[in-house]
Amino acid sequence: MQVSHTNCGNAFSSMLCGLALLISGASAPLYAQEAQEAQEAQEIQEAPSAPEMKQDPLPGLAPYIEGTIEAQMALEDIQAVTVSVVKDGEVVYANGFGMQDIEEGIAVNPETSLFRIGSTSKLFTWLAVMQQVERGNLDLDTDVNEYLDFDIPATYEEPITLRHILSHTAGFEDGGLGYLIHSYPDKGPELAVAMEKYIPARVNPPGEVSSYSNYATALAGLIVQNVTGVPFNQYVKENLFDPLGMQYASFDEPLSDELEPHMTRGYKRELGIWKEQPFEMINAFGPAGAVSASALAMAKFMQANLNNGELNGNRIMSAETMELAHSKLFSSDPRVNGMAYGFYEKTYNGFRVVGHGGDTMQFHTDMAVDKENNLGIFVSYMTTVSNKARNNFVGQIYDHFFPDDVEPIEPPSDFAERAGKYAGSWTFWRRNVSTIEKMFGLLSGGIDVIPTENNTLLVTGPYAPRQFVEVGENLFRQVDGHDRIVFSSRSGEGIDTFYFESLPFMGMQRTPTFESGLFKYLVPGIALLFFLHAIVSWFYKRKDYKQRPAASKSLTYSSLFMSIAHFAFVVLLAVVLIGFADSLYRGVPFLLKAALVLPLLSIPLTLWALFRYVKRFGEETFTVGRRIYYGLLVLAGVFMCYFYFYWNMLGWNYYS
């Protein structure tokens, strides 16, 4: 969720972005005569007109947004976008770009075109919880097991409460392999069944560290369903969508016959052309990300949030409850942003914003509510390329309309004396540790914190490398930006926790030793070279091998078979992780299941090679060179067996 400066941040570049608008040929505002004429000339079916909007109070808002979006679409190959902005109680901008349906020639309409908003859906789940708290049916500090028909295991003495779930501090590991997202018409189990089946391991005591959890959010939706006796999707429709007049919004999957024609199709380039993708099904975890909504429907939701729970005379909750929902609930440090009641805080050029981003495989969304400026911004992109555009959009609006210069800060001259306590590699708590999904950690690099000669900290990932300067005890600000990072000690024995202020729901710990680059990449890489050498050597030395004494031949072949098993597994695993990266959340491919036989086979083969090595070690004919070579080769096999064990690759433990 990086905030960066727009390429359209001044008058000259705004003109260039406007020029990109004319060149790109994507659909322009529905109220613009030029776009209507262009669409008619291309014989594109005209979508229904959006309601007439009042003059926007931010001069130049429309051309700025249009230039920015059109440039993004051209540069990042984005198929469709929808935007809405509310200010001072009114919708001041709503627009659609690109095509809702390429084959039918339907342009995106901000009023009726539905986009999948991913985890932005969570905001409706959180407000449903707060409604039930207000009505006395839920208590934020009660053990959630009191509201369930099954038990969350008592891993720690302190139980999980809704207060923990709302702040992502329940302490769950992450998960989703094979069950988080399906493709239409495939569906996962019903919400209650999924929540009982896929309980993630608890890896932190509740309330200590924020680690984003789709499971915990879906569990909150089930709790609302249980205490009301109303299916969750129906509850949200009756208690949030209908009172706010959000006709074009739904949690249902698949969509109803009335709404399905309005769904923006997901597309992906295949062989250079747009190919329609199946509708994404998140029903098993629906409360965490299943909403389909139009830009103007989301505008009504933002208006209700800005107006403390009321819109057009209809109130979804009291002003006091809405204010509580927007207030800070958890933060790693009171000096930085944290989690509100499900909403998360961000700061743009000095202004506090609450909201939520969201991503599916096909759509990328952001929504921000700024009460100080009475401003709400919603944007959703249909793209399978990246979520970079949505990460930047709100920040670009603030950089243009609410600019704030970055004040230089002189690094403390004595910082080098304490820089070492922050240095090292860090890893997000949001990861899996108990199932085969742990192996996905092999694909993610750590975040390195490196002291510099300038008395700053160089921080790599998840953004481009940036430098931070100390501005307080354990608090740092970006040298050339507003983002901040903060460190703390949970154990009281040195710095062990780290947060980016822009990611208050993603706490980090120091990278475990065996997950460092040394043991994750370097040593396995060397082991693979030994295995490859053993395999290749057999092809040009096989005649020599056959003529060796029985003891030597036995060691040679046991080492060869061991090397083949290890090398073949790593190659197959790489093929699966690279070739099936976009579909692993939908299901476990057969190739992965087949590949997982090899680590189980590698263990006895490695033990056999180790036995033959020890057996031959004392023989006079076993030369020093061969002792070293086969010793290192067998040691590589032993290391890889532990490597598979550590990364949960021994067996088919997908869910628990």
Automatic annotation (TrEMBL):
Every copy of the Beta-lactamase-related domain together lies at: 67-384
What Pfam families has UniProt attached to this entry? Beta-lactamase (PF00144)
Q: Which residues cross the membrane?
A: 518-540, 560-581, 587-608, 628-647
Q: Which UniProt keywords apply?
A: Hydrolase, Membrane, Signal, Transmembrane, Transmembrane helix
InterPro entries membership: AmpC-like (IPR050491), Beta-lactam-related (IPR001466), Beta-lactam/transpept-like (IPR012338)
* Gene Ontology molecular functions: hydrolase activity
Q: Write out the coiled-coil annotation as residue ranges.
A: none
The region annotated as signal peptide is 1-32
Q: What is this protein called?
A: Serine hydrolase
